Amino acid sequence: MKAMVLHAIRQPLQFEERPDPLPGADEILVRVEACAVCRTDLHVVDGDLTEPKLPLVPGHEIVGIVERCGDGVTNLRPGRRVGIPWLGHTCGCCSYCESGRENLCDTPGFTGYTRDGGFASYVVADASYAFPLDGFSDPVAAAPLMCAGLIGWRSLKMAGDGRRIGIFGFGAAAHIIAQVCVYQGRDVYAFTREGDHAAQAMAKSLGAVWAGSSDETPPKQLDAAIIFAPVGALVPAALRAVAKGGRVVCGGIHMSDIPQFPYSILWGERQILSVANLTRADAVEFLDLAPHAGVKTITTVYPLERANEALDDLRAGRFQGAAVLVP
């Protein structure tokens, strides 16, 4: 198979030919049709996440066709399209798993971090953590849903039921969950980097009632804010934008340090929450909701061997929506 492989942190991925992998017990072999490129992949490659297995095939927004099933797999069959997300395995027996919080598992496995991911033509996955995509005919369009969509959905659930939702950092996750907010009858307020008129225009085209830079004050106080940009300085900015009782949800796996801020902007029962990974229940919910909400992803396609270019373009913000690799 073909694969883009990380051998050392902060080094370019290497294009390699590898033997096709074989699924073990309870695993499936999937022929990758598309794999979106996530900011978490940047955090892995750049060393912000410090414990990847090396060498590593990154990528965790995978859509593909089941080619072969290992012993014990009963929920999937060859020929079925599936999606494979970041959460690749949990122990099932720690206190978090037993209480329905498998996203906080003590000994998890993560696709494209602790196990090889989808920057390749084939990937092996735990069958219990792959999701049927029977109603999704376009693998490129579906790939960003497997992390940007799922984490966006979990972030929105944690934000609560408020009507006015601020979204800081209008990239892959934001452009998906904004559509869900509009479908639910909420008002979206989009915050972008200063001067990023393209992102602001995209936000408005997707139904945002207001779009501006992250240092601007929205015309109305927000019920909640979701921060997708990995910038700690946005936390005080979001706190200032939300009304009393409002929530600020940090939707990324990594963020720069949050600067000191006065207690007065937290007071009034405002809350700061973080999102950690996802549960399989989140995936089932969102993949059922997305077609009803009419979610359309905006994608830029790269061939697999140009994965380094896609990562560089993501780092520099050279495209709107999501980048997708196609083997």
Written description of the protein model:
- The structure is a single chain.
- This protein has 327 residues and is α/β, with parallel strands linked by helices.
- It has two domains: 2-146 and 297-326, Quinone Oxidoreductase, Chain A, domain 1 (Alpha-Beta Complex); 149-274, NAD(P)-binding Rossmann-like Domain (Rossmann fold).
- It contains nine helices and 17 strands.
- The protein has helices spanning 39-45, 95-98, 139-142, 148-159, 172-183, 197-205, 234-241, 280-293, 307-316, and strands at 2-5, 14-17, 27-37, 61-69, 81-84, 87-89, 109-110, 122-126, 131-132, 164-168, 187-192, 210-213, 222-227, 242-250, 271-274, 299-303, 322-326.
- Strands 3, 4, 5, 8, 9, 16 and 17 form a seven-stranded mixed beta sheet that branches.
- Helix 9 (307-316) links the parallel strand 16 and strand 17.
- Helix 4 crosses helix 5 (172-183) and helix 4 (148-159) packs across helix 8 (280-293).
- It is globular and about 55 Å long.
- The chain starts with a strand and ends with a strand.
Question: What's the gist of this structure?
Answer:
The protein has 327 residues and is of the alpha/beta class. It has helices spanning 39-45, 95-98, 139-142, 148-159, 172-183, 197-205, 234-241, 280-293, 307-316; strands spanning 2-5, 14-17, 27-37, 61-69, 81-84, 87-89, 109-110, 122-126, 131-132, 164-168, 187-192, 210-213, 222-227, 242-250, 271-274, 299-303, 322-326. It folds into two domains: 2-146 and 297-326, Medium-chain alcohol dehydrogenases, catalytic domain (Quinone Oxidoreductase, Chain A, domain 1, Alpha-Beta Complex), CATH 3.90.180.10; 149-274, NAD(P)-binding Rossmann-like Domain (Rossmann fold, 3-Layer(aba) Sandwich).
